[in-house]
């Protein structure tokens, strides 16, 4: 080891020239051996020692700092570095489509782009707002206000769902790089327009489902968004998109509904005609296949266009078939008769005294529209005698009557699964008054939804089996997970009435209602139509009595009577013009027209020669 | 010694050049893949739009109006047409010999 001599000038300046010279002589003349140490001063040694110490401390400090960075704070700093370098982009998943039973698209999604800006990168909002507003045809004051309010933010929407022209206009503005961007979004479109709007529901601008099947099947339709990691340089420009970090978006499941667009259209057009002719407060229609419980059409008025939900009246949002209830009136009578026959309280071939059209029930006067004397059970239904029905119901105890009504599904949610579905109103027996038995027999003192009513009537039409109404058939990409998430695709079945009793009611009295009773306007050439009219006074909320001029008119019909393929219900709430309020006049023609068109569309063979209906009452044996 | 040194140098250069070539090829393929993905997305969006358009154009509500207006025209025209005018337009059925 050799020790470098100090510079002569430095040494001289510090008065050390003699030692330096001696050292120079010794170092130049003699080789330094193991036992020979260079001549050094104690101060020089100290200095070297200090340097070594400083270097050692520096090294130690650097080492400790490295330990801190690489070991102690490794995870935090690594995450920070990754955050600065990479950017995770969320890839929206395309929502599933909704189809009708024949594959027509009821709801689908298309990609649109929405413009956002980074307000903190916009130094002067007003000129920018003016340019944007000019290009996109929007109010510059509002844009400027938004930019000013969110000047410290990194994100602000300017316009959602741009058209291709808008996109070009924005691109030509030459906005500062990194100060704006287009974000892809899925926008929901309903190619059939307002058709079945209440069943489908809609999605708002943020893709959140609102009402209808969109809400019920939200989880199934939504899909799972993916993500993609982008690597950026210091200026924020994307420099790499590694493939291995991609999580592709999983599209939502497409769902096939039980609706048939054609039948739905028939129903909606008839409702429009009813609205035009009778100017009601509201009207709704249902078409169901009684053998499966599948809803073929579900329509309600007033309605809305899900493609343009802005400015829709509040009452138009309500799906009257499931979220509105009414006193059913005479359409309820067949269920009471079915209960009385099943419990052997009355025989179908018995006659009932209808008291000449007027009778007292305690202090209450009950009357029929026309005076009748003795009527058969069938004729009580055909003529829709209130007194006759009260006499039949009187043979049932209150508990038996309640049980009969509940068996047909009244008082509980039908189970279509649509949001907002209500259970109607069926009071427990302990709350019944002495008039309740008679009132319930003619469809008063309880409230039902149209869906409950058609489900119950379907149970009579199919031979006594109550099937929960079904709006969803299947998913298109059928996986085990999706199947379990589709509660609407299953049916709940229970026995509501004896098969023979149900058949007799449908092919006997209900058939005669159309042939010679209150529903003659529903006759269809070639088909054995059965039906039941309903005309119910509405309760006046102010006087708490039945109104003399507000009615709910309804008609329920189906065909062919021997093996019903279709059943139709039309309910008209408060027809205000036209001079009539009877279900046979207001609702029956519309229901019959829907039934006629549906039977023809489904190619249901005619079961009767034109204009010559056979007497099914005589042909069928009474149970 | 010079030969060995030169050979090692050439080998190192060759490996480096091959690596660069492979990297370039890899980048080219990734660019192509990215482009295809983009094209696929564009085509998929286009398909969705076209399907929406066809469904709108083929919506029963729209077709019914067309069909029914033609039917109404036919019904309105039929009584006004005389038997002679129909005969003048040619026979309704033709026989092929």
Report on this structure.
- The complex is a heterodimer of chains A (623) and B (97).
- Chain A is an alpha+beta fold.
- Chain A is 36% helix and 20% strand.
- Chain A folds into three domains: 64 residues, no CATH class; 168 residues, Penicillin-binding protein 2a (Domain 2) (Alpha-Beta Complex); 333 residues, DD-peptidase/beta-lactamase superfamily (Beta-lactamase).
- In chain A, strands 2, 3, 4, 5, 10 and 18 form a six-stranded mixed sheet that branches. In chain A, strands 12-11-22-21-20 form a five-stranded antiparallel sheet, with helices on both faces. A three-stranded antiparallel sheet of chain A has the order 1-8-9.
- In chain A, helix 5 crosses helix 6.
- Chain A is elongated, with a radius of gyration of 42 Å.
- The N terminus and C terminus of chain A are likely disordered.
- Chain B has 97 residues and is an all-alpha fold.
- Chain B has one domain.
- Chain B starts with a helix and ends in a 9-residue tail after the last helix.
- Chains A and B meet through strand 3 and helix 11 of A and helix 1 and helix 2 of B.
**Structural class of the helices, strands and pairings of chain A?**
alpha+beta
Sequence stretches where pLDDT stays below 50 over 5 or more residues of chain B: 82-97
The helix/strand series of chain B, from N terminus to C terminus, equals HHH
Bin the strand percentage of chain A: 15-25%
Could you give the count of β-strands of chain B?
0
Please, how many domains of chain A? Answer: 3
Mean pLDDT of chain A: 86
So, the CATH homologous superfamily of the largest domain in chain A? Answer: DD-peptidase/beta-lactamase superfamily
Helix content of chain B: over 70%
Mean pLDDT of chain B: 81
CA-based gyration radius of chain B: 37 Å
